[in-house]
Amino acid sequence: MRSVLPVVLIVPFLFLAQGAAAADVPVDKALRAEVSDEVPNVFRDMGVVQRRAMVKGGRFLLSTFGSFDFSDGPYTNYSMSVNPGYAISDFFEIYLSFAPAYFVQPRSIVDYVGQYELAGGEHIELVPSKPLRHVGAEFLWAPAYGKDSLGIRNVIRSDTFFKGSLAKISFAGESGWRYAAGIGKTYFINKMFGFRVCVNFGRVQDIVNGEKSTRSMTLLETGLMLYL
Predict the structure, then answer these.
(1) Between the chain's N and C termini, which has fewer beta carbons within 10 Å?
(2) Is 130:102 a contact under the CB 8 Å cutoff?
(3) Burial class (CB in 10 A: 0-12, 13-18, 19+), 10
């Protein structure tokens, strides 16, 4: 017991002396990690740390894309839209949506129904009022940025966005409404161009055999972005 007591008393003094010696050693500040865009370079290539893919706030935008309507109607509608817009911030964008023309393609159900003959010798027909154009508005919220790998050496930066849209479709002498909500991604090619893909779900009014009805709609959009 007497031999242990001196050791217990000496050990704390050794630790205090070592700490005092370490405090006198100057710190080499050159070893500190460089910081750029608020992310240390040592962490920049790690997937867990993401910085803004592009500074968009305050810039004018131009979105051009093709739309493919995969709905439960008898006809598939294709359109080409030109949407000028503005980035309120890096996360919020607003657009004026304009499609100058639609292309309508009948589905197999149209020919299938047309094969049946009524008692009076007449055939059933599904005759749509073809959409001519639409004008509307879109609101986009992009809350998340990310990176996607292209092979083992290259990555492409992107954002994930949610979109709400409302459009008035013009038919021959009639009109109908389309509203939808979607989710998509924008892949940034460089500081001026991007590629965008979006899947929308919503409701649309159309006219078949002179009667207006509302149906469910799935809309796929793909196109290019221009950041001015």
Answers:
(1) N
(2) yes
(3) exposed
Amino acid 138 reads E
pLDDT in tens, the chain (228 residues): 555 455 445 555 555 555 555 455 565 555 555 544 454 554 444 444 445 667 888 999 999 988 888 776 677 788 889 999 999 998 999 999 999 988 877 776 666 666 666 666 676 776 777 888 999 999 999 998 887 777 677 788 899 999 999 999 998 878 889 999 999 999 998 888 999 999 999 998 887 777 788 888 888 999 999 999
Q: Give whole-number Cα distances, 25 to 20, 28, 30, 106, 213, in Å.
A: 9, 9, 15, 81, 81
For 73-136, the DSSP string reads SSEEEEEEEEEEEEESSSSEEEEEEEE--EEEEE-HHHHHHHT-B-TTS-B----B----EEEE
Q: Is 0.90 surpassed by the pTM of this model?
A: no
